[in-house]
Every structure is written in structure tokens, then in C-alpha cells.
């Protein structure tokens, strides 16, 4: 199977679904990670260009932990909008990766506008990726991919429908998140929180709900056409 995870910022994927991606990778599935924005405001001290460069390097290091393919879209952090240009870019992203399954942000319940826009873009273009008369650099998909929405940060307003036991891959998730070294001090300054401890708390809470030590959760986008086969590991 081919899996594409799309996050708004460098580290969103790691917080919300890295354990699941690690399970896919361990099963021999193809995994791609795409980042909408360049994370250029994620520092209290460094200029935009420098922190954007650092965060791209960190994203590559994280993806390398599980051998995932990284796609860096490079839109301005905090200023991602949907228009014809961005819609065509995301159509071409999906056509390039040709996934069976897309994991992305909840387009309704998340707290951050870049998260909402990313999720909405993927929902909007899902069927368009297979439409031949919409021309992009890559040919249309042979089939319409399935779409699942990831948990929200701290689980706020998110009602899980399916859980993935990530107890066996929690160490991989820690390694992937820890690759984003620039964000540890930034998040301490901004939110007074420890990066990895926050992730472990959220994953542990979802694990309690699922009856395991650690878990991640998802909501399936029920739209036409939809497959009934099991896609989560």
C-alpha cells in the first residue's frame, strides 16, 4: 500500500500520526510525508529564512527515521490559503505520490488556520486527482485515494472513529519528533510545554481509550466513492 501524510507544519505529522506511519513502514508499505508550510515563524531568535532552512533539514531527518519520502511545499507559515494555484499544487502532489490512503488534518475541528486549510485542500482535491481534464505536471491518478483525518492537537473537539496501537512504534515516534530540535525551546517559550512529553501524554491518553499503552486516532472522510476495506494498520 502507498500512504501519504500531509501536515501543515514541520512536526505536525510527527505529533499526530508518526507511530502509524512507522507501522506502515515496518510492514513494507510506501510512506510519503508532505509539509504545507516552511515553518518560518517557528523561532524567537532566528530570522525567517534561517529557521525555514533548519526546519526543512529537521523534517528530512525525521522522515529518514522510517525511510519516508519527503515533499516540501514551502508555503509561508501562518499564511496558507486556498486558491486555484494551491489547489493545483495539491492535486499534483497526490498525483506524484499516487497514494491509496491520505492522512491529513481535520478540516473542521482543528485550532490552527494552516491545519484547517491543509485538511480542506486535501478533501477538496481528492476526486480531482483522477480527473483527466485537470492538467498538472503528473498524470491523473488511476483511482481516487481514501482520506482519513488525523487527531487534533491535544485532541480538542476530535471524536475518534478508529484507533491504531502504536505501542510497538512509540520509540520511532519519539525519534522522529526529537529530530525537530529547533522547536523544543520555541514551544517551551510559547506554550510552557515539553515537546516529547506532550506527545507521550496525548498518545497515552488515546491509548487508554483504545485499551493499549499508546495509540493514535483517526476519523474517516465518508464521501462518495468510498472503499470498505481496512486501510489502517
Explain this structure to me?
It is a single chain. This protein has 233 residues and is of the alpha/beta class. The protein has one domain (2-220): LmbE-like (Rossmann fold, 3-Layer(aba) Sandwich), CATH 3.40.50. It is 41% helix and 17% strand. It contains seven helices and seven strands. It has helices spanning 12-26, 48-65, 84-97, 113-125, 170-178, 182-191, 195-210, and strands spanning 2-7, 30-37, 69-75, 101-104, 146-150, 162-165, 215-220. A seven-stranded mixed sheet has the order 3-2-1-4-5-7-6, with helices on both faces. The model has no long low-confidence stretch (mean pLDDT 94).
Per CATH, the superfamily is: LmbE-like
Q: What share of residues is helical?
A: 40-55%
What is the number of helical segments per DSSP (H or I, 4+ residues)? 7
CATH architecture: 3-Layer(aba) Sandwich
What profile does the largest beta sheet have? Answer: 7 strands, mixed
Count up the domains. Answer: 1
Cα gyration radius (Å): 17 Å
CATH topology value: Rossmann fold
Order of helices and strands: EHEHEHEHEEHHHE
* Strand order in the sheet with the most strands: 3-2-1-4-5-7-6
Low-pLDDT parts are none
Q: Quick check: average pLDDT?
A: 94
Molecular shape:
globular
Distance between the termini: 11 Å
Pairing-aware structural class of the strands and helices? alpha/beta
Strand content: 15-25%
Instruction: Write down how many β-strands occur, each being a DSSP E stretch of 2 or more residues.
Output: 7
**CATH C-level label:** Alpha Beta
Amino acid at each position: 500500500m502507498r500512504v501519504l501524510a500531509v501536515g501543515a507544519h514541520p512536526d505536525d505529522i510527527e505529533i499526530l500520526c508518526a507511530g502509524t506511519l512507522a507501522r506502515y513502514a515496518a510492514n513494507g508499505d510506501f510512506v510519503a510525508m508532505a509539509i504545507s508550510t516552511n515553518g518560518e515563524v517557528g523561532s524567537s531568535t532566528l530570522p525567517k529564512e534561517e529557521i525555514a532552512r533548519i526546519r526543512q533539514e529537521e523534517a528530512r531527518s525525521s522522515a529518514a527515521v522510517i525511510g519516508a519520502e519527503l515533499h516540501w511545499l514551502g508555503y509561508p507559515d501562518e499564511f496558507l490559503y486556498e486558491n486555484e494555484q494551491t489547489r493545483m499544487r495539491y492535486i499534483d502532489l497526490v498525483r506524484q505520490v499516487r497514494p491509496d490512503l491520505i492522512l491529513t488534518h481535520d478540516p473542521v475541528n482543528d485550532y490552527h488556520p494552516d491545519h484547517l486549510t491543509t485538511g480542506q485542500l486535501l478533501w477538496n482535491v481528492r476526486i480531482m486527482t483522477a480527473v483527466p481534464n485537470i492538467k498538472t505536471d503528473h498524470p491523473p491518478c488511476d483511482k481516487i485515494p481514501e482520506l482519513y483525518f488525523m487527531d487534533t492537537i491535544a485532541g480538542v473537539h476530535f471524536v475518534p472513529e478508529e484507533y491504531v496501537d502504536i505501542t510497538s512504534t512509540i520509540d520511532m515516534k519519539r525519534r522522529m519528533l526529537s529530530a525537530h530540535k529547533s522547536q523544543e525551546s520555541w514551544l517551551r517559550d510559547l506554550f510552557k510545554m515539553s515537546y516529547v512529553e506532550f506527545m507521550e501524554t496525548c498518545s497515552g491518553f488515546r491509548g487508554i481509550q483504545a485499551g493499549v499503552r499508546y495509540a493514535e486516532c483517526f476519523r474517516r472522510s465518508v464521501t462518495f466513492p468510498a472503499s470498505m476495506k481496512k486501510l489502517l494498520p
